[in-house]
Write the structure tokens for this entry.
Amino acid sequence: MTTPRQIKFSFLAREQSEGAGAVVRRSIGTPKLKHLTPFLMLDHAFIPPGAGFPDHPHRGQETITYILKGGVDHEDFAGNKGTIGVGDLQFMTAGRGIMHAEMPVQTEDTNIGLQLWVDLPAELKNCEPRYRDLRASEIPIAQTADKKVTVKVISGKSQGVESLKDLAYTPVWLLDIDIQPGGKITQELPKGWNAFAYTLEGAVSISNGADEAKTETVPPYHNVVFEQAGDVVTASVEEGASEGARFILVAGQPLDQNIVQYGPFVTTSKDAVYQAMMDFQTSSNGFERAANWESEIGKSMGRIR
């Protein structure tokens, strides 16, 4: 027997400025939803030509960047560099410290992407930084029997299709779900994990608990947070709808630890935040390579911090 999850609450992610000239719709990491362990922040970013995220540090978290339109170049103080395009993802583990830049591919169009910040377990916060790119061509695709629902199985599993392994240290499921009119999916989720859906396109009807007649129809740019109890979520688009709907469904294993965050530094205590600030300012304890480092892709815009 499966137990449908209830909707805890949902809300619109409002626009705000971020980085240098970018606009984001932030849902996690706001007064509405400060944290949802292990998730720290979710940004739906719109980056016009000439904008971006020049040289800046991180410590203590992982970031998952998913490109929806355009592309992003990245470069860090260890010499890592590359580009991810439409449908590609980058899993970045900041660990004990990293300094990098993320700049849009320069075209006439706005680049659009999602970035999810995931907390690291306390015992891994001092790990060495690393990257793992996942190309669109590597992502398994699942479909319902009637082909009206298509799922990009980025991380986790859907309809019997499993994702690639070892993408992030903190266990996370990430599914990109497209539902055509008349389509319906009941998606399993790990028991006890926190979960949410973020809507990208169209209006999706999400069941609220065991009563299938009780649904919430959600338009784009909303974050739908589910209760922790239960192990399935059902979503659909009515037969007569003029368009389909697209959303991401995300679940993560909760971490039983304090979250103390100051900008790009995520620790478990105030003392550790002060130490992170000092380490970055003095280029020590993981930030040695930050001393006098400037990215090539960010030089034209200067540093954020």
Remarks:
- The CA atoms of residues 194 and 228 lie 5 Å apart.
- The chain has one domain: 7-252.
- The radius of gyration is 19 Å.
